[in-house]
Amino acid sequence: MTAIVQDIRFALRKLGRRPGFAALAVFTLALGIGANTAIFSVVHAVLLAPLPYSDADRLVQVWNKYPLMNLPQASVSVPDYLDRRSGVESFEESALYYFDSFNLADAGPPERVIGVRATASLFPLVRTAPALGQVFGEPEEELGREKVVVLSHDLWQGRFGGDRAVVGRDLRLDGEPYRVLGVMPAAFRFPSPEVKLWTPFAFTPEQRSDDSRGREFSQMLARLGPDASAAAAQAEIDAVHEANKERFPDSATFWNNSGFGGMVVPYREQLFGEIEPVLLLLQGVVGLVLLIACVNVANLLLARVHDRQKELAVRTALGAGRFTLARELMAESLVLALSGAAAGVWLGVLGTRLLGWLGVDPTAGRVDVDVDLPVLAFTLGVALATALVFGLFPVVYQWRLHPNAVLKEGSGRGASAGAGAALWRHGLVVTEIALAMMLLVGAGLLVRTFAALQNEDPGFTREGVLTARVSLPDGKYAESDAVAGFFDRALERVRALPGVTGAGIVSSAPFSGMSSSGSYSVEGYAPGAGESAPHGLIRIVDEEYFRTLDVPVLQGRTFTAADRAGVDAVVVVDRLLADKYFPDADPIGRRISRGGPDGPFFTIVGVVAPVKVRQLDQPVTKETIYASFRQRPERNMTFVVRTSADPASLAQPLRDAVLAVDPEQPTFDLLTMEEQVAGSLETRRVSMLLLVAFGGLALVLAAVGIYGVLAFSVGRRVRELGTRMALGASRRDILGLVLGQGLKLTLAGLAAGVVLTLLLARFLAALLFGVASHDPATLGAVGVFLAAVALAACFRPAWQASRLDPMNALRDE
């Protein structure tokens, strides 16, 4: 232990004599370690740290599925939940919930808040007690007693100023009084941070009945028993489903043809499964950035130990053992690594804060990202590993020294080990150029992917459009005429706003994250044996919707004001449906029905182009049926408003127009269509920005590396270069000589980078769109750019070499 302390003290003294060298090495390591700390803090929070619920690894999400209907994940009906709650022994507890929104008109202006209606079993299931008051229980699940509410901490603080007296008083939600029972802790964000309150899910007799099977609008959460597994629960759900086929033979054919069943998904996978590959890719990327930083520091240490050849040779001749010298060199590396780690932690904390400032949150606010003890332990481990990686190079170099040869050659310049050291340094520079090229090509491919997605046609014109949701309360707008009257008056006011060129309404706007779908029947078409019934997206729109969004009308017409209740029901379908079921016939005038072959029929009056509604990088694979709002009024609708001005500037006038119709009716989720589309690209945007940032950091480190090698090489070759100039070499010759050396290293690094890039391609392929993983244009552009940066880094050492005075160079030598 004493020897280690002495080695560290000696290393500190040595490094203190060269503060510039130490500062550069520490700064280089801090960049690499800081990037790793920042990304690992996200990886740890998302993939490794416990979720903010007790025994969260036992939580599972339970879905329905219809894979043969192109519906791999569907919500759950109340009977499905009741079957699984009683029939799956692997479930220790279970709960059913669904998202809802409420007009809160209390203690301030009207506000639309997102809430959840849940069974009373939810809070015991997630093992979370209220911070204030109590939660609702089974008595509140009874119809007539469900008008109670539990508030989120954010709503309690923001709307009610943290007033503890709010517990026990009534709030008005959707015009109805709800008694406040309690307030949840600040960290409780189930099932998402947007949720501001929870109320009981009281099942109606109709919802409990078998007739409501297929009416799927809820989500099921369950906790596995201590000895249960997700696989065992899945097997039990499958058994329940097989038993139901015997109980309901009329439904068995549909279930078989659609592939209907249940699906158990671990809750962490449900939350973060989509971003897990991206996070792991980014962790690999910052690992490469750290490797480049280690290469740079290794080169610095090689240059330093080369300068110390004579000192090391003298100490060896006086009896110092190679292990003693190696231990001292490793101590220097350890001091540098730990210093870099200390600075890297600070940069990591700054990086996590910077992600928030830039609006980059891979966790979507579901968990907190902190540099905590596990992250600090990771950083320490990284520091020790880097010390080993870059510290071995000077140790191996020192072991290869021949003390007698060094001492015979005096100053050590041109010592026999010099050629080997140069080879090591050049190889390290080639490596970091290759790694930098690989990262830059990856970043370039993601940039091109993002640009291609930005230019992808969603099937409508998204520029200049503002969207705003409205949800009318059931009590106040119980009748269809009242619902239609509200939207007629609101649309009239919105269309009269300055700059508005069109306005319509839709039940689910594209890229809003909302969706409604269902089965339907086509008159004259019968699914073949083993073929699933038709299934498509359902949208309710008014007569101005298609014109407002510039959705192309391919055949027939869209809706008119004459398509009202009491006249023949009509629908508009997209080309996908028309091509699927009427490939050789005119779809206009054909009929489809909802609710089975015996349900009400709708006549097709028009065909429009397919519209992307979820992801720009995915083709439209699910057909869409549009129904007339005037024939089927809905309380939850979204305004789509086109304006010749900035659509964001229309937000407040639109709010005022709605409030002029009903002073208690708020609008919410006011977003431009560009923002809606951008939201669907958030994961891609995050990965692109971070990879570009880390690619840029790699570029800087590579440029510093090649500069350092050439600067050191020029310093070692002063006598040689002076001799060349004394024998007639011009300044241009010397400049070309040094630049040529740098160019050779750069070209070798680029060649190796191409090979590494081709290896990276298979990992990036799933993230790309509109560009090949081996795109020649990107490879060429990055190669030229990196070569230009490398040559720019070479220029200063080359210029200094060309300005040498031959006489002074030879005299100094």
Explain this structure to me?
By secondary structure, the chain is an alpha+beta fold. The protein has four domains: 1-55 and 272-412, no CATH class; 56-271, no CATH class; 417-457 and 682-813, no CATH class; 473-664, no CATH class.
Set out the fold topology:
Layout lengths: L1 H15 L2 H30 L10 E8 L4 E4 L3 H10 L3 E14 L6 E8 L3 H4 L6 E2 L14 E4 L1 H8 L9 E4 L2 E8 L11 E6 L4 H4 L10 E6 L5 H18 L1 H10 L2 E6 H6 L3 H32 L1 H9 L4 H36 L15 H27 L3 H6 L7 H39 L10 E7 L8 H16 L4 E7 L10 E6 L12 E7 L3 H5 L3 E4 L13 E5 H7 L9 E4 L6 E8 L15 E5 L7 E8 L7 H11 L6 E5 H8 L1 H35 L1 H9 L4 H34 L11 H27 L3 H7 L1
Parallel strand pairs: 4-9, 6-8, 15-20, 17-19
Antiparallel strand pairs: 1-2, 1-10, 1-11, 3-4, 3-10, 5-8, 6-9, 7-8, 12-21, 12-22, 13-21, 14-15, 14-18, 16-19, 17-20, 18-19
Briefly characterize the structure:
The protein is of the alpha+beta class and 813 residues long.
Q: Which tags fit this structure?
A:
11-stranded mixed beta sheet; 813 residues; single chain; 51% helix; 25 helices; 4 domains; 22 strands; 6-stranded mixed beta barrel; alpha+beta; 17% strand
